[in-house]
Every structure is written in structure tokens, then in C-alpha cells.
Amino acid sequence: RVLVLVAGFSGLRWGEVSALERRDFQLGEGELAVTVNRAVVRTGGEFIVGRPKSKAALRTVPLPEPLRTEIIAHLSKWSDAGPTGKVFPAKSGDYLNRDTVKEPFKVAATSIGQPHMTIHDLRHSAATLFAQAGMTLADHMTVMGHTSSSMSARYTHSTASRTKQLVETLW
After folding, report:
1. pLDDT tens-digit profile of 21-30?
2. Is residue 61 helix, strand or coil?
3. Dist. CA 153–CA 171, nearest whole Å
4. Alpha carbon 111 to chain centroid distance?
5. Residue 105 near residue 119, CB atoms below 8 Å
6. Which pTM does this prediction carry?
């Protein structure tokens, strides 16, 4: 649940979400954010942890305040102990493989009428919500970890409800 919420409201890439450690969350009073310092990729059956895709991907992303209680509960119940403990560890103690969540995510997506939705689509959803909330292009690129405006544009999508809302404000 928290993996989906964090991914959907932060726009982090799968490798960034799966590499999160407890110390990456800022949970202080009036501050709720997640910092991306690393990413994990799986190559030849082995997990390799390193820097994210680009220098721009090293970033701190603010999170909506209502996620605070969800994150704190998750950290106390499911995450590995200590500041460097994995936030979303696999049962084996290793990094969480995308294939582990693929089927449960598909079941959940189908139950809400979105059978073709993938975990990566959460990144697109976050990017679109950021743009609809009024982020400037510079803000959007920073939060998404993009190095180009064209990449930010690729991740934002028009929605019927948003265009309807905008047209209604004209009248």
C-alpha cells in the first residue's frame, strides 16, 4: 500500500522506490519528503545499487501531509531496522523485485477499472498531477528528476476531467 502511495505521489522511478532506506524520509514537524540518493537495478539476476539515472535524479520530493501516518506505520511494521534499513524489503531480505508486485498491482488496477495500468504508470500519474496542481516547468523537472523539458512533457497527460474543469472556469 505505502509503496503505491509513495510512488504515486512522488513520481519516483521503480529503481528509486525499491532502493529507499528509512533515512531517506524526512518526517519532522511540518516537513514530509523523500530524498533520492540511490537506485537499484537488476542485472543478470543480481541487484546492483548505485547512483540514479542522472545528476538531476538526486533530489528531495515533498509528499502530501496525509501520507505521514501511512509512512510511519509502514516503517514500524514492514521496513528493515536502522537508518539504512530497506523501506520495501523483499521477504528474502534482498531488494524488492518489480515482478513480485506486478501481479498484485494488476489485480488492484483491474479492480478500479484500469487493467492495463502498470507500476511505471504511477510515475506518469504523479507527473500529470504535479502539472495540474500548477507546478512550473522548472519545478516539474526538479521534482521528477528530469534533465529536459521534453521529458517532463512526455510524462504529463491531458485528462477529460481536467479539461472540463478548465473550460468551466472560462465561463
Report:
1. 999 999 998 8
2. strand
3. 28
4. 21
5. yes
6. 0.85
